[in-house]
Fold this protein.
Amino acid sequence: MKNKQIYYNIIVLRDDTSLKTFRIKRWVVKFLPILLVFILLYCGISTFFLFKLNKENKKNYALLEEKENELKEIKFELSRLNNVKQLLEKYDETYIKDLVSGIAQNKNKPGLDLEELFGKKNLNLVKISNVQCIRDNKYFLMRFDLNNLEANKESRGRVFITVITRDGKSYDLNLTNEDLKFTISRFKAVQIRFKVPDYISMNNIFAFKLTVKNNQGKVIFRETYPLDNILL
């Protein structure tokens, strides 16, 4: 005689519905704990691999960010070298000698710091790009893009403009234009019109130095742009 199948009856009783009965075979009930163990094991293994994958992603992201900063620094250096190349191509040997001679004659004078005059600085917090200038008698119209390099963080500060003459002297313009102040998440297109002081000869202007300071007065970016490279 064959063994009779054993069933478990499940009765569902609700106030808003009629009585319902379900019949489940005995082997199904025995299989449920095994299935539960497999589900818990699967969840545990999945959680472990997700945690490991997330850790690897964070490590790769940090490495990618480091490489991006290195690439930005390399591009920045290439831009500077290109400016020097263009300068050497545009001016003859006599002009270069006169410029170097003018700086050399003033290098021992008090207040002249060649590093401060031509030195660059880039903390990879902000960057100035696409600098252009239009000359109108004693006035200049300058345009440039100010880029925030910090992800998910606002950058605040001010841009300062300095005139550098052919004899190696520098003159801070002390402009009060509100467009030079910034609070940016990504970038800001800056356009400013300013007058060069009368005591500076227009023909004696060699370059403009743009300096970016944060709200605490710390220099976070500085670069010198020869006038002939940015003049339209």
User: Anything to note?
Assistant: The chain has two domains: 7-55, 91-230. The two ends are 105 Å apart (CA to CA).
